[in-house]
Design a protein that fits this description.
The protein is of the alpha+beta class. The protein has 6 helices and 18 strands. The strands form 3 sheets. The chain has a 9-stranded mixed beta sheet with strand order 8-17-16-14-13-10-12-11-18. Strands 6-5-4-1-3-2-7 form a 7-stranded antiparallel beta sheet. A two-stranded antiparallel sheet has the order 9-15. The radius of gyration is 22 Å and the shape is elongated.
């Protein structure tokens, strides 16, 4: 698709537009049919990102604003008259604060997990804070000093460091800050840097892609150097 284009999106896909906030050429319009996103030209990178947004219907914009659906030749309507707003400005007033990267949050993603063709060494372990505290109570100090952890509100702990604690839980492989459960990978099979853009990750932020179609986001400030006192205080704070 070359030249002007537009995509009609369901309203529940609004949060996915946050990954495109850096593109100053994009405009957005709200209508009864849903959210319209438009731009003057579609390059390969933008095309990949748009295809990852769930529920989108793509159109070429031809003479006098007529819409031609992808794969069709006959126009079926016209681009909404508006009002249109710059995407960056619309996002600032339309998306709730919970969609802004920061705290450990869980959100829906337009990626699915499938079996991976290659095995990779796990980089993270998800276990419970209680199990980690019990292990750390008797573990050698040199081993504890190798780990950092981030805690979730539901009592889980994500542990990072080599070697990982020999505890039951979920092991995760990591690629440029995108984590998937060991033995799985994401689909569509795009590069990790594309997934980072898709999720709108900031520097140092890690996303854990879960099998239920959600992801947990962990910012750099949430990692704590593992110690008995740090784990004890984290457990007490969540009781």
């Amino acid at each position: 698709m070359s030249g002007p284009w537009t995509v009609l999106l369901p309203r529940e896909s609004a949060a996915a537009l946050a990954r495109l906030r850096g593109n100053a050429a994009l405009g957005v319009c709200e209508s009864a049919a849903g959210l319209w996103l438009r731009g003057p030209q579609l390059d390969e990178s933008l095309d990949r990102q748009l295809r990852l947004i769930p529920g989108g219907r793509r159109f070429a914009v031809v003479d006098e604003g007529q819409l031609v659906a992808e794969g069709n030749l006959v126009p079926l309507g016209r681009v909404p008259e508006g009002p249109w707003a710059l995407l960056s400005e619309w996002l600032e007033v339309s998306l709730p604060a919970a969609n802004i990267p920061g705290a450990i949050t869980r959100a829906a993603v337009s990626l699915t997990l499938v079996p991976a063709a290659l095995e990779r060494e796990p980089a993270l372990l998800e276990t419970t804070l209680a199990q980690l505290m019990e292990y750390v109570a008797t573990a050698p100090q040199w081993r504890i000093e190798r780990w950092t952890f981030a805690a979730t509100q539901d009592g889980s702990a994500i542990v990072r460091g080599t070697p990982l604690p020999p505890l039951p839980g979920t092991q995760w492989v990591l690629d440029q800050g995108i984590a998937a459960p060991a033995g799985l990978t994401w689909s569509p099979p795009v590069d990790a840097d594309v997934v980072r853009q898709l999720l709108g990750l900031v520097d140092g932020e890690i996303a854990l892609l879960r099998a239920d179609g959600t992801c947990d986001r962990i910012v750099a400030d949430h990692w704590v150097r593992a110690s008995r006192s740090a784990l004890r205080g984290t457990l007490e704070a969540r009781r």
